[in-house]
Amino acid sequence: MSARIKRGTYNQEYHHKQSRYVVKEYSSSEAMEERYEHKTQARIQEVVRTKMVEKYVREEPMIRGPQFLARLRSHTVFEHTPVKLFCTVEGFPLPIVKWYKDGVILDSSSGRYLVEDKGGSHSLEIPRCSTDDTAQYTVVAGNSHGQASSQASIIVKRFKEEEESCSYAWLPFTAAMLPKIQFTKIHITFVEKFGPVFATEGESATLSASMTLNPNLANLQPEAQWYRDETRLVDSKWVKIETGRGFTKLTLPNLYKDDEGLYTLRMVTRGGTAEHSAFVSVADGPPPVPAAPGAPMDIKIHDANIDYVIVSWKPPNTTTEGPILGYFVDKCEVGTENWTQCNDHPIKICKYPVSGLFEGHSYHFRVRAVNSHGISKASRMSDPIAALDATEFGRLYAKKLGGRLDVVSYHDEIEEEGKPPGAPSGIHASETDRTYVVLSWKAPAYSSKAPMWYYIEKELTGSNAWQRVNTQVPIRSPRYAVFDLAEGKQYNFRVLSANIYGTSEPSEPSRPVQTLELKGVPSAPGQVIATRETDTSVLIQWAPPKEPNNLIGYYIDQCVKGSKNWTSANHKPHKNTKFVVSGLTKGETYVFRVQAINELGLSEESQESSPLTVKAALRAPSAPYDIALLNCDGHSMVLNWKKPLHSGGAGVKEYFVDKRRSGTTMWREVHIPPVSERLYKVEGLTEGAIYQFHVYAANLAGLGPASKHSDDFTCEAWTMPEPGPAYNLTFCEVRDDSLVIEWQKPVYSGSGPITGYHVEYAKKGTTDWTTVNKTAVSHRFHKVTGLEVNESYVFRVCAANAAGVGMSSMASDPVTAKAVSGAQEVSCVVDEKSGDIVLSFESCQINEGSHFTWKKDYKEITDFSKGVVIKTEGSHSKLIFKNPDKEDFGTFSVSVSNTDGVSSSYTIRAEDLEKMLTLSYDIRHPIIPLKSELVYKILERGRMRFWLQAEGISSNVTYKFFANNKELSGADPNKMGHDVSTGIIEFIMDHFTEENEGTFTCQITDGGGKAQSSLVLIGDAFKAALAEADYQRREYIRVKEGPHFSEFLSLQVGDDCSVTLVCKVANLKKESEFHWYKDDAEIIPDVKPDLGSGVCKLPIKLFSLKTTGVYRATISDDRGKDMSQIDVSGKIFDDAINKLSQLAGASAPELVINCTATGIQLQCHLKYYTSEMNITWYHGETKLSHSNKTVIGGNPAMATMEVIEPVDKDKGPYSIVITNSENSHKRTLDLSGDVYEKAFADFQKLKAEAYAEKNRGKVVGGLPDVVTIMEKKTLSLTCTVCGDPKPQVSWLKNGGEVEPDDQYVVSLDQGKFASLTIKGVSMEDSGRYTMIVQNKYGGESVDIVVSVYRHGEKIPEAKPTLTPKTLIPPKLPIEIPQPKTQPASPAPSPAPSATSPTPPRAAPGRGVKSPTPSRRK
């Protein structure tokens, strides 16, 4: 039986005590037999390697898709030779691998290709290549979690004849003795580098770098190697590395303090390496509870065994937290998320043995720190570790079975029954600690299937009292850790082996083993010395502690001088006694201290270092370069060179020049004292000789390296008529599309004076020179425009004279057209106080040693005799013209040294200068600026305050006030004064009268400045001021002396919606009188004002627009009179209506129905209603307005809305909304269903009754109530009647019907005029006559009393005793005729808003003395 373990899988049963065999065929040849012993040992080692893979179980394949550990590599081979492509892939579940050739799946059944799969290793072999095999090969691995691929090319070449005939062509291709390889030297230049990183746990960080390669060959790319503290990093869960052509990037996706350290990138080629380093700082993340400690780090697993592992870690820094009290260790089985705590109580040392593991299981471990405030976050979990027998591989052996097979198995798998095992031997302590010892021994020879175990016994040396250690748990591995020992004691140990058949004799005792005795934490480190490193970092060095006590490392703390706010410079123990603290603030002063760490914790702090200000350390300058020849006269040469690129932190003070003859090696100094300028004349040369020169630069730190030697210069006199080269090309004001170039005039001017210069430029790396100025410029500067942003250029300058254009200067260093970030420009202003012309510049960069240089027309300003002053404070510099004149125009520039080329300029043109000079004169001969002109304010007692406010006045200010050109006196009772702090000047006139109408003026003088302001008070403006002054004067007298209003009139609305005018009066006496007025008409209230209480009220009944007006109240007596008035309109009226709406709406009940003869009326009873209130009616969501259809109105007790002649579409919900400024109130009634039907029936009834009332028979007028007539006269009772249809008229006498005859004549003319004529009345005609007028809608009867007297008798006074008119009801049912339909009928007149009509009552009767009856009116 064979067992096979695949990479990325884990078979737990494999590790149990069952027979396991690895069988392999061997050749039966005699040669193979001789090598059998070697093959046996090799096979045992192969089994060991296979099983070792399973001891450390990888976590990544259990949670991710396929990933290539080893990718395909391209090959170039010759025809008819073999080639093999290899790759290694991992994943869980095990990926399926497919091969492709030029994108087509490979057919392995043809026999041309051999494909092998061994666990995670895959290969493709072509035994005999042909040119057809030249292709791109791809391997694709996939599982349920994803897919990955790798590609490589195979190029197959044919043999050339010369290659076949060479001296080693007969050898196999792989063994040919090739000539020695000459490696290509690749120069690597970093373009972008990563800098220090300061991050916090849980964040991510990325370090990236880009580079240029010279030469950049596709098949000779350098290898990017990343290191942390000299430990090589590889792609893992915690580190992601990405590398391409010309760049590489390292990403830390989830930072822990374990990731802190010095990260180094090494670009490795066979010709050398290029490297760059930067520090990554990882601070503690937010703790779970405030002031809890940071997490431990660097979790390591030691002595992994079947029964236990030992976990160690490093303690966190506690600069700002309390001391560590102990640690908790947690474990988690691989593949689960279940963390369990291993120790019940915190342990104080940074090492802990964890027992109780299950054999064959893999675990992660983590640690948490504890202090008095709480428990820290957990550390990063350890790599997985399996609990396995560390010695099981030593028990493998091989046995030949004969023929072509052999077997590898365990010693204890040979069958031998019935005997106890032998005694172990060689017991010794492989590791010793404070409280435990790790024992190892040699297992006895054992060949039984019965399991064997061990017992360990211990004794204190010399006690001879052996005590068994493992009484309950048998030990199966010949390695075990004995715990719970006393510190600093000596012990002896021995081991017994046992099986089911018995126990062996004890082994020989071990030598005395003494446990360690830690003395405590280390002592404090020694003296701490801080030295300058860079602008943002400092090098810290210290002496190690005298008592290291198993030192782990150091923590470094930093603090700004004087703050006592200590912070950690590193968050992971540093092993060396040197450390570079990064991320400091340039120019800030710091102190430092150090603590040592061991397993028990942190030492005391060292003494603080001396304070150190952060700035770059001084170094020698770099070498000068580009040595140029400016002139030669046959005996001497004038040289110029460019200053070093790096000054070393201090200015270059001196240069040294050496010379030599071309072709020689001996350099000689050409001058003993050094030169300070970069222009030097070398004398004493031999004419015709050829020389080379080099230059050294020196600063305070020392002498820098020598420059590259110059070109060969021949010492021959220059005689050409054209000028020599310009030199010292410098640049300033570099912007995105322009720059300014400056230069020095040539030393050799040729045959005549120099007349101008030409500037040329070319893009970096090209020789295509472009002339900037076609016309030569006479000055030695020029602004070049039209450049491309971010493009680099080189420049040169040619001088010209009458003979022509001379030789070009040496090309400048490349300059990139890109403005300095944050660059600002020079500004020019005239100082508002002094009148100086000021050019100001704020530098976006400022460093130690930075200096502002001001120039006019690019020549440094050195003449300060004409009042030119330069003032510099920090990053701000000013060029000030104290005495500007007309010659101060031109281009003024400023540059800042020790920066990235910060510079700017400002051009003052002649016309601009003229304007500034005018402004300067005005400022120096100033008009005092006023914040406010002369104004007045009326004070108490009617006094007038005239005042103005200046921008600023001094204590020496003088001023005068005038009224109509007459100076006013400040003597009593007037007052005059000023306030320097506010600039206010005032004059207070005690008595303002009609004589003061006119112009008021204030004149101010303060130093050289003057100001004047006037105020005109005439006409209406004066009258208004005088009236206000009089009012204030009266008000003062009123309040101080006579009766007056303590509270003026106000309008108040009560909760019952009553509206009242209220005021309060004071200082009354018995004779005081109070009166009310509206619009100047006196009001006599129902209740007299209560002067005793001082509160006077006037109710306003039925408050509405009709009640608006000006209300006035007066109080008077012999001491005086006071008045208060209020205009009840506008806002006051609106506020009152709003309050009424609020009160009425809040108390409004639900709507009720009241039907009328014209429609259905909805009523909302309110505390008060007026049409000015904001009340809206709605039908459903439709807002209703007053119309012929809907009549909206009301009375003081209710709001109404009547639907005229309702129809079905008028059914539905109706609501009233009473709105005020704060809210609204809504009441709703649903006019539908039975509610509508009942209301509609009532409306129809009332409508019919009203119709009948309108059309019934009526007596319109003309009949008297009483008639007195003399006998034998003719009586005519006539009246007008109406009705529709025309009524019938009948007459009664004393209840009986009057029959018409010759005496009684009854007539009805035109159906309108009815009469009863009695001819020759007699005494018998006296009585009660009744006229009845009637149609189908009813009618009425009218009684007339007729009294007849005889001639000569006194006319009687007859009085009616009967009801003059009686109504006759209509015939039921009342029929209302339907209106006739007409094409266009006029709109009906609005229905009345009043309630249903009531029958008219008969007018009271009245006597008629005249015989001629009067008509009723």
Poorly predicted runs: 1-34, 54-63, 161-181, 396-415, 1384-1417
Class from secondary-structure proportions: mainly beta
What distance lies between the first and last C-alpha atoms, to the nearest angstrom? Answer: 142 Å
The portion of residues forming beta strands comes to 35-45%
Total number of strands: 102
**Largest sheet properties:** 6 strands, mixed
Arithmetic mean pLDDT: 83
Helical percentage? under 10%
Sum up the overall morphology in one term.
extended
Radius of gyration: 61 Å
Enumerate how many helices there are, as a single number: 7
What labels would you give this structure?
extended; 8% helix; five-stranded mixed β-sheet; mainly beta; 42% strand; disordered N terminus; six-stranded mixed β-sheet; 1417 residues; disordered C terminus; single chain
What this model shows, in words?
There is one protein chain. With 1417 residues, this protein is mostly beta strands. 8% of the residues lie in helices and 42% in strands. The protein has seven helices and 102 strands. The strands form 25 sheets. Strands 94, 96, 97, 100, 101 and 102 form a six-stranded mixed beta sheet that branches. β68 (890-896) and β69 (903-908) form a beta hairpin. The longest helix has 23 residues, at 1019-1041. The N and C termini lie far apart (142 Å).
